[in-house]
Specification:
The complex is a heterodimer of chains A (544) and B (428). Chain A has 544 residues and is an alpha+beta fold. Helix content of chain A is 50%, strand content 17%. Chain A contains 15 helices and 16 strands. In chain A, the strands form three sheets. In chain A, strands 5-4-3-1-9-8-7 form a seven-stranded mixed beta sheet. In chain A, strand 10 and strand 11 form a beta hairpin. The mean pLDDT of chain A is 84. Chain B has 428 residues and is α/β, with parallel strands linked by helices. In chain B, strands 6, 7, 10, 13, 14 and 16 form a six-stranded mixed beta sheet that branches. In chain B, helix 14 crosses helix 15. Chain B folds into two domains: 186 residues, Periplasmic binding protein-like II (D-Maltodextrin-Binding Protein, domain 2); 191 residues, D-Maltodextrin-Binding Protein, domain 2 (3-Layer(aba) Sandwich). Classes of the chains: A alpha+beta (544), B alpha/beta (428). At the A-B interface, strand 5, helix 8 and helix 9 of A face helix 1, helix 2, strand 2, helix 4 and helix 12 of B.
């Protein structure tokens, strides 16, 4: 440890020395220049950051996210709209077809379809006759199931007979796989005899009849048809929110339309199913940089999304609907994004748009459905922060490069010629010195050279050649420190007495020094010393 | 010199700072692994819970999201995997992890689509699993391609409610169902008994029994009698043991005492058309708690689960069934992460949770052994508890038969079953 410290100390020594020197001798030109540049560039940098802040560049990540959400939402809502719109149309077509077929078959048996409840023994035959129609409809639709329910039960004597309705429900367990050879079709509700005849296995949760005690897909379109006689089927179909049929484990959405005979009697419903899995597989999200991006299709009540009534698709595999809080609170954010809050730990950001599941004049047109594209809030924060770090790092890098380049350029174009000029000035032969190509410095050197020439001329006039002066200068270097001290004071014009007083020495000692000084410098008087010293000083030469 | 070094250092540091945020994204970008499984119906909830838990714990830590993109029956998954392996038009893209029976896995492995699991698990890790289960997954050149996640065997299912009514009137006993010969005798009595319920209608007796897999019935039957069903890649119809096995099922089937049906016995249980069957332990989840009759009246159905029956004088043997999980070949990283999921999924505590609510058997030595006997009493589902207790008994007393695996076994099996049913139907 000690060794490391001493090594560090050693390494820092030159810098310490330089600072100490700067303290004693002032800051060197090079350092001054560097500091000046650093302050200048830093000021520009801060100004630039301020401008970027005002211009909103640091929230560019957020804007990009918003644009991404807008695009993804537009794409996914178009897809969903098309899928649901297509199934709505197919539901209406199926309802028209089944209404006609069942009416025909019933009348061939001598009854109206609405009288089937009174003739339960006819149900199996009538339902079996429509099985092929349902299988065909299922094959043509991008749907995971097809069904029809008649307002009749096989056994009116049973306790729950009022809520038990006969019908047929066929599911395609693999709606995403096109397999003509062995489509995975099974029967969820209906007579076992039909399943045997058509080789359709029974679903694990098969039941003979539908339990409609809590079945909006059954009651709502029928009630709507009763309340609006004469309204076409295209204005009466109904989309149920995500639900589970009694005793089943799969979440589904159902589109159902009433079955109405030519006399206007309503005798059941029919429709298609979209399973949660089909929805998930049909609407994969292009998650881009957001791996947790997902979309929801949900009915919107006020500002609340009920997760258990929604379908989810996307990379976010955790079933958010299974969390303790089963709803999302929608609220607007400062920017375009919305916040969808589940609880204090689960918050999502995204965008939603309304989706039109019904014609404007449909009985159910007031139901509001939305498609939402969202990600966990933390993901957006991470993404935006990451972008900003990249931006900030790039700017910092630019600044550093800027300082280095400008310092190098400044050094070459500014500091170097000045130092060169100083060296020339310090040299003895200014006339022979090269040009530094900085006009101001070259002019100064010329001026000093001229001055030297004038001084030389003056010395010559006073019988002193430049050589004599230089020789004198050389000889001063032979003086002892004590003699030099006395010589310096002579040069300043002090008398021997004054020098003795200044140096706290006796006059005799000064005289002894003087003698030696005179001898060494080959002069004969104090005045002579003063003359030489003045001439040398005027020439800019220091006597050390 | 020193100054230029400093400059270079600053530039490099700045570059690193600028680039780092872009690279550090890995931990924030989890890998989504798609999964196909056949745990539908009531099994789905258990599977969903386990997958959610994985995604929220180990998955969140390791950057893995398991996304289920198909839940369908094993036959449907086999069909899809075959389509995808053959790149047929309309076939879905292969998932990252899929459940598959060895026969399906072999097809995928032959095409080089499966990851060799020996490279993803250490020998020490593999030593934690029941060796026979691992052996079943070594389908090509001794390499492990099918990872045991939940296995099954065949047991005898019985609608106890109806059987007790029948037994009290005819004097048959549940012990009669220990042997296939006993089952045939009881089936004849049951047909007569049900026929007698409606004196006005002649010959409307009901079938008593059905085997979900006639091929397994013959395979295990021959083993019990000390012979092999197969000679090379074909069935050896000429052995006296096979003749006995054939007789035991064909006669009841031709007489209507045993059902002939192209589906699972549970369909017929639902409507009370049979009351006894042999089939996979996993079938327990498909048993309806009620029987629904044609007039929509229902009756509760309490199931009883008994060890697989044995031919009189034969040794106790039963089939070892159950699909395993395969990892589809992709990137090294994805394969490693898929293995992380499989390890977590088969950890004794998770394996037992799955087993406790599904009717499958655990796959690790620890879970299969002590823990299962210890935890058996804590299982709340009575049916599962009875099932596992029957399996424990079988584990101690039975020999398990691994189904043969060779190219064409699927077709052979299918042909055998359809021919058998066809002949039996024509004799009715």
């Amino acid at each position: 440890m000690k060794e490391v410290l001493s090594r560090l100390k050693k390494m820092a020594e030159p810098a310490r020395h330089r600072f100490q020197q700067a303290g004693e001798e002032g800051i060197p030109l090079r350092l001054r220049f560097f500091l000046f540049l650093a302050v200048l560039v830093l000021t520009i940098f801060l100004g630039f950051i301020a401008i970027l802040l005002l211009a909103g560049t640091f929230t560019a990540g957020l804007s990009e996210t918003e644009r991404f959400f807008e695009n993804e939402l537009a794409r996914i809502s178009d897809e969903i709209s098309e899928q649901y719109g297509q199934l709505s149309l197919q539901t209406v077509e199926l309802a028209e077809k089944l209404s006609r077929d069942i009416e025909q078959q019933s009348s061939s048996m001598g009854i109206f379809p609405s009288q089937l409840g009174e003739h339960p023994y006819m149900l199996e035959e009538i339902i079996a006759a429509e099985c092929d129609e349902l299988l065909l409809a299922l094959q043509l639709a991008k749907s995971s199931g097809v069904f029809f329910i008649l307002d009749a039960t096989i056994n009116p004597a049973l306790v729950n007979a009022a809520n038990s309705k006969a019908g047929l429900y066929i599911k395609n367990m693999e709606p995403n796989v096109i397999s003509a050879t062995s489509p995975n079709i099974i029967m969820l509700r209906g007579f076992p005899a039909i399943s045997r005849k058509k080789s359709l296995p029974l679903h694990a949760q098969w039941q003979l009849e539908f339990d409609v005690s809590d079945a909006p897909y059954y009651h709502r379109p029928m009630e709507a048809a009763r309340a609006n006689p004469g309204l076409p089927l295209s204005r009466l179909y109904f989309w149920s929110a995500a639900l589970r049929l009694p005793d089943t484990s799969e979440e589904i959405m159902l589109c159902s339309a009433p079955l109405i005979d030519s006399k206007g009697h309503i005798f059941g419903v029919c429709g298609f199913e979209i399973s949660a899995m089909l929805f998930k597989l049909s609407h994969s999200m292009d998650s881009g940089s957001y791996k947790h991006l997902f979309c929801l299709l949900s009915p919107l009540a006020g500002d609340t999304i009920e997760l258990e009534h929604s379908f989810i698709a996307g990379g976010y595999a955790a079933r958010i609907a299974s969390a303790e809080v089963n709803r999302l609170q929608v609220s607007k954010q400062r920017r375009h994004l919305y916040s969808y809050r589940q609880d204090k730990d689960h918050k999502f950001l995204g965008l939603h748009t309304d989706i039109q599941l019904y014609p404007r004049d449909s009985v159910f047109a007031d139901q509001r459905w939305i498609v939402t594209a969202m990600v966990p809030e933390a993901d957006i924060l991470v993404s935006v922060t990451r972008l900003n770090i990249i931006l900030f790092s790039s700017l910092t890098l630019l600044v550093i490069i800027g300082v280095i380049v400008s310092f190098n350029l400044g050094n070459r174009l500014f500091i170097k010629p000045i130092s060169q000029g100083f060296n020339i000035i310090k040299s003895s032969d200014l006339d022979a010195a090269p040009k530094v190509k900085v006009p101001e410095i070259d002019a100064l050197i010329d001026h000093l050279a001229l001055r030297n020439r004038e001084l030389a001329e003056r010395a010559r006039q006073e019988n002193l050649s430049l050589d004599t002066l230089n020789r004198f200068l050389e000889k001063t270097r032979e003086l002892t420190p004590a003699e030099r001290e006395v010589f310096k004071l002579y040069g300043e014009g002090l008398t021997a007495k004054e020098i003795a007083a200044r140096l706290y020495l006796s006059i005799n000692t000064i005289k002894t020094h003087s003698k030696r000084i005179y001898s060494k410098l080959e002069v004969s008087s104090r005045e002579e010393i003063i003359l030489y010293t003045t001439l040398l000083r005027e020439m800019g030469k220091e006597i050390n | 010199m020193q100054f230029s070094r400093l400059v270079a250092f600053i530039v490099l540091l700045s570059l690193a700072l600028a680039i780092m945020p872009g690279c550090s994204g890995r931990s924030g970008d989890p890998i989504i692994l798609t999964l196909w499984h056949n745990y539908g119906g009531q099994l789905k909830e258990t599977m969903d819970e386990l997958i959610d838990e994985f995604n929220e714990t180990v998955g969140a830590r390791e950057g893995i999201i398991i996304s289920v993109t198909s839940i369908s029956g094993s036959a449907a998954i086999h069909e899809k995997l075959t389509m995808a392996a053959n790149e047929e038009p309309g076939a879905p893209a292969l998932p990252d992890i899929t459940i598959a029976y060895p026969k399906t896995a072999l097809l995928l492995a032959e095409k080089g689509l499966l990851a060799n699991l020996d490279e993803l698990f250490t020998p020490v890790e593999l030593s934690a699993y029941v060796p026979q289960f691992l052996q079943e997954g070594r389908i090509k050149d001794g390499a492990l391609y099918v990872f045991p996640t939940a296995k099954s065997t065949e047991v005898l299912f019985l609608n106890r409610t109806i059987f007790d009514r029948f037994a009290s009137e005819t004097g048959v006993s549940i012990d009669d169902l220990r042997t296939f010969e006993g089952i045939a005798r009881v089936a004849a009595l049951y047909y007569d008994w049900t026929d007698a319920q409606t004196p006005a209608v002649k010959s409307d007796g009901k079938a008593f029994f059905m085997s979900d897999s006639l091929f397994n019935y013959a395979l295990v039957g021959c083993q019990q009698l000390g012979a092999d069903l197969l000679k090379g890649n074909t069935i050896n119809f000429s052995s006296p043991e096979y003749a006995r096995v054939w007789e035991s099922y064909f006669k009841p089937a031709a007489m209507g005492h045993a059902a002939i049906y192209n589906g699972y016995a549970t369909d017929l249980f639902k409507t009370g058309e049979i009351i006894c069957s042999t089939g996979s332990t996993a079938g327990i989840m498909f048993f309806s708690p009620t029987v629904t009759y044609p007039d929509n009246t229902t009756e509760p159905a309490e199931p009883a689960i008994l060890p697989y029956p044995v031919f009189e004088g034969g040794k106790k043997a039963a089939i070892q069934r159950g699909a395993g999980m395969c990892i589809i070949k992709s990137t090294e990283e994805k394969e490693k992460l898929a293995a992380v999921f499989l390890k977590w999924f088969t950890r004794p505590e998770n394996n037992l949770r799955f087993v406790a609510s599904t009717g499958y058997l655990p796959v690790t030595v620890e879970a299969y052994g002590d823990i299962m006997s210890r935890e058996l009493e804590t299982i709340s589902d009575e049916n599962i508890k009875n099932l596992l207790s029957a399996c424990r008994k079988m584990q101690q007393e039975y020999e398990f038969v691994i189904p043969p695996l060779f190219e064409g076994i699927d077709q052979l099996q299918e042909k055998y079953e359809s021919s058998f049913k066809g002949i039996a139907s024509s004799c009715r």
